[in-house]
Amino acid sequence: MFNLYLKWTENYGLIWCRFLFWKAGVVVLSVDGIKDMFITNGGLYKVQKSSLTYFGGQRFTGYGGLLNNVGGDVWRRKRHALDPAFHKKYLQSLIPKMNEMTRAMIEQLKQNTNANDFIDMDWYMKKSAILLIASIGYGIDLNNREDVSMEQILDSMNDMMDGFFGEAFDPLFLHNPMNRHLTRKTKEAGCLLRRLGHDALKHRRDQIKQNLETPVDLLAHSIRIQENSPWYSDEEVVDDFVTFIVAGFETTSNVMSFVLALLARNPGVSAWAAQEMTDLVEGKQFLDEDDLSEMSYLECVIKEAMRLYPVVSLVRRSTNVDSIIDKHLIPTDTQVMFLPFLQGRLEEIWSEPLSFKPERFLKTESLKKFTYIPFLVGPRKCIGSTFAMNEIKIVVGQILQHFELSAPSDEDIEPEFRITLGPKVGTRLRLRERATS
Ligand code: HEM
């Protein structure tokens, strides 16, 4: 998958590598290396420029968005100001809305699916994830826009990931006439995202002017930061809009697709997880926050899916200063990489690493610190991890509650790396409605 030339050093500590022939760097996998890279130097190292900042001149997140902000005081202030939007208590208040939106998708699935046909659940997961983050984070209903359809939005996001991947791994991508069509489509995706962000901001300001009640969501936090911070321009609010839509949609939908694909191929695991759901929701309409924390087996399934298929399977940084990483001196301006995909498959950490065994997460005492970090660690760890876990539990939980899943016998799960790791050709599954649903 990754075109890596590896030379192992002792203790799978540092691997010197050449990355796709033209980028030299260091891969860090050891516990001490991860600590040095993400905790000791976590707030110091530069996050690398990527296609997500600017693509061929088109601004996506710019350098203002939280994810691509190079660090330092501006990033620290912004992270501090946005953290409350992801506070556990606040996220609990979003659970009813997440349930309600997922229920609408379940009804749609019941109407549109036929027990004998295979349907692409990856498409449904993408649709569900983007609707949810846009509505909960920014008060936008992407389902009912006059200017653009849901299909156009999802196609646009798909082109964007193809374009980003092309540019990230081919330095001549933007200059190659063969890529002109994809380059144009990718730029159009950037325009669309920024337009949606500007519309949301304008709409919210109008609502505030008219003294209408508005939600305390991500956009409200951005507007509140603006009140005291002249450095936070409208363009930067839109940088964050693009950041949260892309970071919140692409990752979560891919995890949900992998989880469903794995459940469909492992009927024993699926039955156990479905039984857990049945016991939890007995006599209730929806899941509440206690139910989510009691979904211990489904949580193991999700963790195991993220071990085998970590959607963020490559994390890059650039050293700002000469640094010691796992006792090795790494010079300034070196590209340092961490590969969760590789870490999740190391025999030194996992028994039978290629097998899908959710039970391994039932007892995690034997798991060494930093050997499983799908959301990263340190100051730049994922801000949306609890949001994502709540969403995945609600969506997958409700699907399990209402449907039995099966996969085509001749199709394996094939992951594809396109900045994030996702299923290569969608996730074709057959859904049979449960008698009790
Ligand atoms: C299962 C789903 C998710 C996974 C596996 C995941 C994983 C990660 C990882 C590994 C990082 C660090 C990336 C780096 O430093 O290069 C990250 C950062 C980030 N994630 Fe997530 N993420 C998920 C869902 C979300 C959601 C739902 C949101 C927002 C609603 C979100 C927003 C962000 C943001 C803004 C950052 C940058 C944080 C900073 O630099 O301060 N993520 N995520």
Structure write-up:
- The chain has 14 helices and 15 strands.
- A hairpin with a 2-residue loop joins strand 5 (54-55) and strand 6.
- It has helices at 31-40, 72-82, 88-93, 95-112, 121-138, 150-169, 180-209, 218-228, 234-265, 267-281, 289-294, 296-308, 340-343, 385-402; strands spanning 4-8, 14-19, 23-28, 46-47, 54-55, 58-59, 118-120, 315-318, 323-325, 328-330, 335-338, 403-406, 415-418, 420-423, 428-433.
- The longest helix is centred in the middle third of the chain and has 32 residues, at 234-265.
- The model is unreliable at 1-22 (pLDDT under 50).
- The chain has a domain at 52-287 and 382-433: Cytochrome P450 (Cytochrome p450, Orthogonal Bundle).
- It has a 6-stranded mixed beta sheet. The chain has a 3-stranded antiparallel beta sheet with strand order 7-15-12. The protein has a two-stranded antiparallel ribbon with strand order 5-6.
- The protein is globular.
- The protein has 437 residues and is α+β, with helices and mostly antiparallel strands.
- It binds protoporphyrin IX containing FE.
- Protoporphyrin IX containing FE is lined by residues 47, 66-67, 79, 133, 243-244, 247-248, 251-252, 255, 311-312, 315, 374-376, 380, 382-384, 387-388.
